[in-house]
Amino acid sequence: MQRALLLLFTLSFFLLAHAQEDEISFSEALAIHLPKYNKHADKAYRDKNIARADELFDSLVNYGLKGSVLDNFRVTNLKKKPVYLNEFEKPVYLTTYASWIIPTEGEIPALNKLSEKYGEQIDFIILFWDNFETTKKLAKKYHKNIKILYVDELQNNSPYVVKMMKHSLGLPTSFLLDSGKKILDIRRKVSHPFGIEFEKSFALNYDSLSSAISLLLMENSSRYITAEKTVFP
């Protein structure tokens, strides 16, 4: 019996160590896969072949970036204090943003509603590429369960990986992370024409966000979000 337990412990330790050795950081994964992606994506955009560009982005995420671990980068909160990614212990829904990006009408209300419902289970983070004053003003639009952070690139103090999150994948981009900061998926926000009624915009954004949150809960908590009918605020 003791031999069996010892063998089981040794095997478990070996598998854990092997899994840790296989882990690769997000910045390392980008260094490997980004040059080839940029070469083909630049051509697709020059040719105005948006469908091809989207296909290439999905391929980069699915075969190059998923499973990597997002680096423990440092940014700043609204108290002007440094914040590290690894300080967040729950699964993370992280969206990179900037003030010059115009959200669709239903985008922020949908995110606010879901963060109100799942804030105990998920850390919702918006990371702005803006100065303190602009970020503080924009933060008023978001629910209290959403952590608002910012990077002021004019200060030239943001870590390399933070710059790469912006300049390699563009804004806005959402990172779905398990509690160990492993990337489960990387998504771009839902797109629809401006000018559609609020209810349709809200429903499209709510459904897209719900899909992301479901993935976080299933992978990290072994719990499923029950199907529910969209309720407008």
TrEMBL record:
<feature type="signal peptide">
    <location>
        <begin position="1"/>
        <end position="19"/>
    </location>
</feature>
<dbReference type="InterPro" id="IPR000866">
    <property type="entry name" value="AhpC/TSA"/>
</dbReference>
<dbReference type="InterPro" id="IPR036249">
    <property type="entry name" value="Thioredoxin-like_sf"/>
</dbReference>
<dbReference type="Pfam" id="PF00578">
    <property type="entry name" value="AhpC-TSA"/>
</dbReference>
<dbReference type="InterPro" id="IPR013766">
    <property type="entry name" value="Thioredoxin_domain"/>
</dbReference>
<protein>
    <submittedName>
        <fullName>Redoxin domain-containing protein</fullName>
    </submittedName>
</protein>
<feature type="domain" description="Thioredoxin">
    <location>
        <begin position="64"/>
        <end position="218"/>
    </location>
</feature>
<keyword id="KW-0732">Signal</keyword>
